[in-house]
Every structure is written in structure tokens, then in C-alpha cells.
Amino acid sequence: MTTASDPSYPAHWEADVVLRDGGTARIRPITTEDAGRLVSFYEQVSDESKYYRFFAPYPRLSDRDVHRFTHHDYVDRVGLAATIGEEFIGTVRYDRIGPDGRPASAPADEAEVAFLVQDAHQGRGVASALLEHIGAVARERGIRRFAAEVLPANSKMIKVFTDVGYQQKRSFEGGSVHLTLDLEPTAESLAVQRAREQRAEARSVQRLLAPGSVAVIGVSRSGGGVGAAVLRNLRDGGFQGHLYAVNEAVTTDLLDGVRAYRGLGDIDSPVDLAVIAVPAERVPEAVAACGEHGVQGLVVLSAGYGESGAAGLDRQRELVRQVRSYGMRLIGPNAYGVINTAPEVGLNASLTPAPAPVRGRIGLFTQSGAIGISLLSALLRRGEGLSSFVSAGNRADVSGNDILQYWYEDEATDVALMYLETLGNPRKFTRLARRTAAVKPVVVAKGGRHTPAGHVVPGTRLPDTTVSALLRQAGVIRVDTVTELVDVGLLLASQPLPAGPRVAILGNSESLGVLTYDACLAQGLRPGAPLDLTTAATPEDFREALGAALGSAENDAVIVTVIPWVNEQEPQDDLAEALRDAVAGHPGKPVAVVHVELAELVDALSPAGGLPGAGVRPEPVRPESSGAAPLPGALPPRPRASNADGAGGASGDAAAAGAGAGAGVRIPAYPAAERAVRAVAEAVRYGQWRRANAEAGQVPEYEDIDEAGAAAQLAGLLADAGDAVLTLTEADAAALLARYGIRVLPTLPAPTADDAVRAARAMGYPVALKTTAPHLRHRADLGGVRLDLATEADLRRSYEELTDLLGTPGELLPVVQAMVPRGVDTVVRSVIDPAAGAVLSFGLAGVASELLGDTAHRLVPATERDAAGLIRSIRTAPLLFGWRGSDPVDTPALEELLLRLSRLVDDHPEVVGVTLEPVVVATEGLSVLSATVRVARPPARTDLGPRTLPSY
Questions:
Q1: Distances in whole angstroms, Cα of residue 224 to Cα of each of 230, 375, 605
Q2: Do β-strands 242-246 and 258-261 pair in parallel, antiparallel, or remain unpaired?
Q3: How many percent of the chain have pLDDT more than 90?
Q4: Which of 520, 691, 798, 846 is the most interior residue, by most CB within 10 Å?
């Protein structure tokens, strides 16, 4: 007898999943308490589906069937159910079998598997999700293969098996299709799983952002309060669907001109999205009403949850459980709201009053309502529009990862801007961000470096500098402030990516040009000498100079600097038109403007500047328009958006005829040179990343790697370790590393001077004498290392000096080691972060590098490109490549060492920490002088398991 409260019940198999249509379901083990649910579920299945399951008419389950299907040992016999609320919508079970096909126990490693999905829920991806989860359970229980018998006519179930990506065999026997699936994950099965995850999570967000009907629950009759404000914003924002107001005390048919109801159940039409604005203690009642009415998603504005302390956090967890039990998704609680500017939707379910953002190509996600307000205001002031906006509050359910899944395939979004306070699942975020960044920029401003109250998803223990490096590796543009977030977003949304770092500077102020030049150098750009047009320059002068700069093959981008005219006779609209005409005549390169107190110029250069099509983003000029090859992964040109009145974009024939060649061209303007240059520099670096990552890097194979031997050694070392983390002995560490082709130079202990001499004779002079005490290890600056000891006399003298200066041999633990060729001392490390996964780090050895934090990081598994970039991304990298006439060291050998270590920790998650210090890289070859290896039971790899939502 096993129930959900039984200690043997495998609670870790429970999971919430997003289905193909964007709804959710809960997958959990079937228990003896599920007999009634199983019978009810079976009664709702069609006769055809029953026939496909049992290969014969089977109208009802017998008592024996019910007992069999609800009693499991969770080892040899396992059953899982997909549920919505308390009801089953699908089941799957496996029974372990032997070679003869009869029931068996371990070590038999094959099981027979069978599914049944309620007809009303077929086509939602229920069976695919169940197969992923039952496969993970089977692997956990030592089962390596599934066998299934399927009728040839049951094409849907055959497709479930054949599409999963596992290696499989298929045969036709006795009138049925016999399928055998190897459950070992493959690259194909992982790709299938992630593609399904992307489609499902994107669809779940799409249902929230494009509802056909919205109900606002908690609209006051007085017209005050949050609910009434959201209702007005929906109504005044031109929402294209059906809109309803809900107030239990309403006595009229209308509230603020919107149909009003006392309860959601009184609405006789479907409701896709509900905005809840009632006190926290009344939210569960509202959620239940939404679930019973079939609402697809919720935006909960109510506060009083995780942000308010422990009691609120418990309330937040219960809210998530309740929402998911009805198959819904949740934005919030404590959310600011959502916006979708698509003309066919017109959704402003937020606290942002008119004027709401106009249609644009920027997607914006924030975890903070206050930051959301700031960003929306900044974009509005600078005339920029949005495609969509989500302020997720406590992000108890829908997070930035979900929004990235949506933006990845959203053709209305060209640039993704995100303000994040924590990365709940850095491993998944970097994976999604890398894929998205391959086709559109992802710009992130990260706030708090620690997990704030209300954000119950665990943060990462990695330092912020490491997180920043990993984001860069994924192609994410990391900025420090929300101002920079807007600055960079504006440039990327309106300008093509630069082909390189060469920047032309021109303007009517020599001083401002020099400031811009200095800022370019500080950002690693290659500016040309500023062209001073003098303060007497006219708009026509600007047009000619900008056209020439854009037409020159020596420039990749142009920054225009402008100060006010002394005589104030030159209208700023004329200058804006001149700049736009120059850009239109020479497309393909980005242009930014630096101005001093010229607000009218900013307005004239933005979409809100009074040009035809204001508020509508024209198609940005792309590299291919100038004959250059398109960037790898670039999206094809899209049709221009239309405004709410149906008018075309500013580049339409009529607009062009009335406004000149530059009509519709946008140029971002900045009030400081440093801000413009930072935006251009980020675009340059992102363009370089796009080009470098046009083809995926390769994780190399090495024929001398002994993966099986390493696995056996680790199994033996951890056999009696329990949950402890073990630091391997020097010998065990060297043996493990040697299996991956990493040789650690041996040492011999020297507890006495005579022992040191014997060790030196065995190794051969010259030798090194060093202490290994923890407080002196790797601290040559403290005098604990003596090098190039060529004779016995040198060795004895050094031994005496060490013991006199630093302590007794028992305290110092001295060792003798052979000398190696001189080179650059470096440090190579790998560490497992529970959230981010394995991280590979590299830097130069010594206190200076530690003090400056000059260490680079990459996620494991590292590719050849990652390894090359890793050693070149530290500030002291020139020391490896011949600084000041020194000989360059063997960087290919160093890259190979990094790749071999990456393979070790990726192949064996039991290896939770490795430090190789120092690694002396010479002109030919390298030497690993010391290694520390820590091992433990492997942590869970959520990214390789079945799809699941974060649990609470």
C-alpha cells in the first residue's frame, strides 16, 4: 500500500509541465488512493482509444485491473498520471520484463510501456510529456530500454514513439508494431525535447499576450484603485477583444462603460485572461473562479506575497500550486502588468496610463514594476515603441526564460531588453539567450546580486563578474544601468550592426569630437581623427560630410556631434532631415548623434518627430542592402508594420514623396558622448559575436581519454562517501587527471633535509623545494618556494632557510619537485555551481591577478572556440603572446589542457571542483605542477532531465 504520504512515495517524480497548447498539467506517480480517479478517467475515454490500448473491446476496468493499475512498487512497476485539478487526463505505466517478456526484477533492464490519453486532451502533447518523464524514472531505476506493442492503425501513438529522438528498432509482429527504444539520451532526443519546450512555453506566453477576451476582477464602483485603473487602460488602449469588469457588489450593467458582472461565473462567454486586483486574502477565491470558468492565464497585481516576508512567501507558493492545478499560467503576483501593441490585439493590461507605448520592435521584460515604469517612460520620451512588455513582479511562475522563448519566434520583436534581479536558472537562461542572440540582440541589465525577498527561485553562488562573463559567452549584451539598457536598445532597434570597430566622428564642435574620440578608445573602438565642420556648418554641410563618411570603406560606423548654432538661424528639423537623407543615401552602417541641449533635434530624429508614419518602426537598414553579406542568423526583411489607422510605414511611396528620401529613417540621439559610444561599442561587440558564432564550435574528441576508467575510479572513491565532498589525495588526483591526458608533475615529500637530498637525487638536479602547508600553498611571494637548486649544497641551504624563516618541517610539509622550463604561470579551475552548472575558469597565477579579479570564465562543455576566447579575454593576456619582446608561449597546448579538463568535468559530474595551480606554460609545452580535485555524488542535472516548470 503506497500513498502520497508514504515515506516510499517518490515525491521527486512530481512535476508541472507546459503542454503543446500552452496550458499546464501536473505529472505525478499513481497511488492506491487514485482508484476512483482512474475509473472516472477510463469512463471518459472513447471506445476506439480503449481498443488501441488493450487490442480488444474493453468497455470498463475490472476491480482486478484497478488494483493492478494503482498498486506499484515504484521500481519494477511504475505508473504516472497527468492531471489537471484532481482529474486524470492521461496515464503511462511500465512493467520491467526479462528476455522472455515475462515480469522480472533487476538486473533486467527492459520494460514494457503503455499509454492512455483522454480523447479531449489528445493533440496537446500529453503523451510526449509522459514519455519524457517515465523515461527519466526508468533510467533512475536501472532500465535502459522500453518495449511497446502498438496497433498499426494507432498512428498517433506510433508518432509519439518515433518522434522522441531515442535510438529505436521497429518491427511488425503478430499484427502489431513492435517498438524498442534505447532510453539513453542522445543529441537528437535532447534537441527534440528542447524544441518541444520552446514551442510550449512560447505558446503559453502568447496566450497571455494575445487574449481574445479579458476580465478584470476587483474593479471598484468608485472608479479608484488598481483594478479600475487597469480597466480604463484596457478600454482606452483600444483592446480589440471582449472586455469585462467583475465586482461582487456591482448593481449596474456597466462600470466605466464596460460590461460588469458580480462574478466571473456570470459571464456566459469564454474568458482567456483574467487580471486580478483584489486583496491577497481574496485571491484564492478569484483563482478558483477563473479555473472553473476555463480561464487560460492570470495577471495577479495583488501584493502581500513573497515580497512581504515568510508568511507571504508561503502564500505565494500556494498561489502557484492552485493556479497550476487548473492548467493556467501566472504573471505575478505583485506584477505591474502586460502590454501588447499589435494592432489586432491592443492590450494594455497594466498600470501604464495613456499615452501607452506605440507600436515598435523592442520587447521589454522587467522583474520590477518601478524599473518598468522608468524604462517605459524613457522609451516614450525618446519616441521609441514596443512590441510587448511584461513586468512579472515576483515571477512566481512566468519568468524571463518564458519570455525569451516567446521572443525567439516573435516576428514583431527585433530587440529584447530585460531588467533582471536574479537568474533563477542560469543554465537554462544562457542556453535560451545564446539561441535567441543568434537571431536578435538580447540586452540585459542585472540588478541585485543576491536573491531578494519574494523571488523564491534560488539564485547562483557565482560572483557577479562570473555571471557577466557567462552572459557574454552566450551573446548577451550586459549593461550596468537601465539608462544604458535604453541607450543600447535604441541603437540596435533602429540601426544595422557595424561590420567592425572603425568609427568616423564628425560635427560642429572640436571639443565634443575629441571627447567622443577619447570615449571610443576607452571602449576598445578604432576611431578616426574627428572631422570638425566648425560652428558655421549648415545642415547641407552635415549632409555631405555624413554621406562621405558612410560611403567610405574605411568606416564601419559614424558618430555625429552637434552643438547649438550661435545665431539660432538653422532649424533643427532641417538638420534632422539632412542627416536622414544622408543615411538613406548610404545605407548599411549605423549612425548615432551626440547633441548638446538640442531636444528638438532628438524629437525630429525619432519616430515621434512628426514624420509620416510616426510611431511606426520602418524596416531598419540591414547590411545586405548595401551589398554586404548578411550577418549569420539574420532574419529576412519583414513587412513594415501598420499603425492603428491602417496607414503604412513611413517608407511608403506617398510618405517618401512628401517628406524626402530620408523619410522614415531613424537615428538615435544621445546627450553625452560616452553614452553614444557605449551603445555603438556594444553593437560592435555583438556583431563580432554573431559573426564568430555563425557556426557552432566543436567539442574535440581525444583518442587517449579513458572515460570508462575514470568512471570506475570515481565509483570506487565515492562508494562509502555518502553525501560528503572528498578532496582526493595527490596520487588519486593525478591518476584521475591522467585518464584525460592531463599529467601532473610528481613531487616527493621531504620531512627532513636528508629526505630532500634523496628525492633530488632520484629526480635529478636542478630541483625546486616548496612548502605545501595550506596557508603557504601557491604563495611564492611569502618565500615558500625555492627554485633552480642545482646542487646538494643549494638544497640543504634552502631547506634550512625555509625552516628557520617559516616554521618546522611538520608545519611546512615541504616537497621536492623537478624543475620545468620557464614560462608564464597560470591557473586553470573548474567548479560546479548548483544553478549554472560546471564553469571553466582561467587566469594568470599570482596575487596581482587575484586582487584585480582578472579571471575569465566559460560554461562547460567548452568548444575549441571557447577555449581560444577564454585565454584571450583576460586583461593580462598579452603576457602570453610576446609582451615587450618576450617569447610567445604555447597557447595551443594551453587550449588543449582547458578542453581536456572541460571534457573531464562534463563527462563526470562527480568531479565538483578542480584547481590546477600553477600551470607553467612555456614556449613549447606546459607543466601542471599541482592539482586539487574534489569529488561528490553528482548533483541533479535539471537541464538534461524531462521538461518541467520550477517547483515550489
A1: 10, 25, 38
A2: parallel
A3: 68
A4: 520
